[in-house]
């Protein structure tokens, strides 16, 4: 698969065998098997063994599988990184990345396994551009719970306290051709709130959203997939532009709006995204 959909990226506590089992049939585009915040200190060693054994056994089908390790400055970080590297997941997610040096240090152990970075500290926001340029980094994940805590801010519906950080990371990710996933929505029984948060994240440019509960999957998958209406317009834009090009022109009009080559590029991206989603869903069925 050349393009991987990452509409829904579900965290699951690495210590919970039942959740790991259930994940094998959930319609998540990607799974983060968590050894960090979702696991109590007394369970860290057992969770590491459980998660790494499961990843080696590869029961998750076409879903992308990522292991989130503990930080290098914790008692578990070094052992997590060694074990995760041996398990060969699709990627290793590093928490609380502050600088490109954090990634370089992990890269020495992780070899060529792609690295993902949790963007969740004030220093990480200020260094987003250099972090985005780090070799081997393929995806940024917003850690909005930690960021709110570190900023002494509040979780508000419009997320105004976070807009600067979200924007800096989006700029860094797109400048370096990385994927970028939005933070979690904590109130996992609040469907309207989740939908609004997904729509905001999608409109800002995120590829998808990280989730904490399976009940959040359906809404997130729907909001981050291109709508039928958008796909229809994309096909019409491509057709109209190709027709105009044949007659030597450079601007078409569809539904009263201009279509230039940049709009056609975006239309092709939407169609490719829809195709990748269909391929993933067929493979998971
Ligand atoms: C929030 C939860 C503690 C709720 O758990 P629970 O009470 O067990 O929920 P349910 O009874 O409604 O569960 C129903 C079934 O679904 C399975 N389940 C629940 N959660 C998950 C999951 N995340 N992945 C897979 N499966 C899940 C249950 O096993 C039930 O199955 P069944 O037995 O068949 O009925 C719980 O959802 C939870 O622990 N969620 C994850 C929390 C987490 O990962 N937190 C850390 C990541 S968030 C973060 O740190 C982001 C970042 O770093 C930041 O700073 O922002
Ligand atoms: Mg965090």
UniProtKB/TrEMBL annotation:
HpcH/HpaI aldolase/citrate lyase domain residues: 7-214
Classification via InterPro entries: Aldolase/citrate-lyase_domain, Citramalyl-CoA_lyase, Citrate_lyase_beta/mcl1/mcl2, Pyrv/PenolPyrv_kinase-like_dom, Pyrv_kinase-like_dom_sf
Pfam family, one: HpcH_HpaI
Signal sequence annotation: none
Residues annotated as binding substrate: 68, 120
GO MF: (S)-citramalyl-CoA lyase activity; metal ion binding
Gene3D superfamilies cross-referenced by the UniProt entry: Phosphoenolpyruvate-binding domains
Keyword Lyase: yes
Family that this chain belongs to: Belongs to the HpcH/HpaI aldolase family.
PANTHER family in alphabetical order: CITRAMALYL-COA LYASE, MITOCHONDRIAL, CITRATE LYASE SUBUNIT BETA-RELATED
Protein name: CoA ester lyase
Lineage, opening ranks: Bacteria, Pseudomonadati, Pseudomonadota, Alphaproteobacteria, Rhodobacterales
């Amino acid at each position: 698969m050349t393009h991987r959909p990452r509409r829904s990226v579900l965290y699951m506590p690495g210590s919970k065998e039942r959740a790991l089992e259930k994940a094998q049939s959930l319609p998540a585009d990607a799974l983060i098997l968590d050894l960090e915040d979702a696991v109590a200190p007394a369970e860290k060693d057992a969770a590491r063994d459980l998660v790494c054994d499961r990843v080696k056994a590869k029961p998750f089908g076409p879903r992308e599988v990522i292991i989130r390790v503990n930080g290098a400055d914790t008692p578990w970080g070094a052992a997590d990184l060694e074990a995760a590297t041996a398990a060969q997941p699709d990627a290793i997610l590093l928490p609380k990345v502050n600088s490109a040096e954090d990634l370089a240090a992990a890269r020495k152990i992780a070899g060529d396994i792609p690295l993902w970075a949790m963007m969740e500290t004030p220093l990480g926001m200020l260094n987003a551009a250099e972090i985005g340029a780090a070799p081997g980094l393929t995806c940024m994940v917003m850690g909005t719970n930690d960021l709110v805590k570190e900023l002494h801010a509040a979780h508000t519906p419009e997320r105004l306290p976070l807009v600067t950080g979200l924007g800096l990371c989006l700029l860094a990710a797109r400048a370096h051709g990385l994927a970028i996933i939005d933070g979690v929505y904590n109130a996992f029984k609040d469907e309207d709130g989740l939908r609004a948060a997904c729509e905001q994240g999608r409109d800002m440019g995120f590829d998808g959203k990280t989730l904490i509960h399976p009940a959040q999957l359906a809404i997130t998958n729907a909001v981050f997939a291109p709508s039928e209406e958008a796909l229809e317009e994309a096909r019409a834009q491509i057709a109209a532009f190709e027709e105009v090009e044949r007659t030597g022109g450079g601007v078409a009009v569809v539904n009263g709006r201009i279509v230039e080559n940049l709009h056609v590029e975006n239309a092709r991206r939407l169609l490719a995204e829809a195709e990748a989603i269909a391929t993933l869903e067929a493979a998971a069925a």
